[in-house]
Amino acid sequence: TSSQPDTKVRQRVRDYIHRRDQLWFGVLERRYYPRMIALKGGTFDMATPSDDDSTYYRATVSDFKLAETETTFFQFALFCTATKRPLKPHRPSWGFYGDHAATQVSWYDACLYANWLSKQINLDTVYTMTEREETDNDSRSETYTVSINEKAKGFRLPTEAEWQFAAGGGEYGIAHGMTEWAGTSSEDSLRYFANIQGEEDRFEYTSPTGHYKPNALGLHDMSGNVWEWCWDWYGGYPKKPETDWYQPEAGSYRVSRGGSWDYGARYARAAYRGNNPPGRRGSYYGFRLASSP
After folding, report:
1. CA neighbor of 235 nearest in space, from 258, 215, 251, 219
2. What are phi and psi of 178, to 5 degrees?
3. Residue 111 CB neighbours (<10 A)
4. What is the pTM of this model?
């Protein structure tokens, strides 16, 4: 028999809970599934005037969807339990808090989760993942060869361009100016939008997702809380603008964006580019999901 719950049985259970108690059904759905926000695409500068890296370009992204918040421990733990993956490697030193952003998650872990969640709601999976024998000694994470089906409508990681476009304000930012950080261009007001280094935000480590004010698109925690993995390999920007471009050249590092609870304001800027080996797990790293309409 299949290790996955029968789709029809799962749907009958969902329908039963919905009929019996719509309020509780809504609580469970919001706790264990991401709320996706539909974003209209556009063209923008893939950097900001104060970005240290002056090599930027006019990027264009198509319409896409992005999760309102980072993936939580509630959500990631459900995946681990359903797939019989151990939770211990994903436990930060301060313990599990279900509504906080999941941490200790590698880029490979994020792709596995995206595929699993796609299957739960009958969407085509975006990634084809073949496990390799070698492991990343730094994190003891499994490693995979990963290819992408660009036509699939399932869950995936955002491209670097999609992430920066959304963090800076998207369509609203094009009309009114992309913000320096997600939600604001004033460092003095950043404490209302982001969990970053320092105690004035009242959290020593991660914070509950959605605790801080959202940006103009309704997205929470795009700056701060945890670094968010993107699909792209880390590398240079293209010389000629391309719609929906991402860095396809294989390398040693994948892009991460947004800074985290233990990094300062500079790293939380919408244009700042982080990078790490895809097998790296750490208390600073998490992710949020995207999908194509």
Report:
1. 251
2. -65, 140
3. 25
4. 0.88
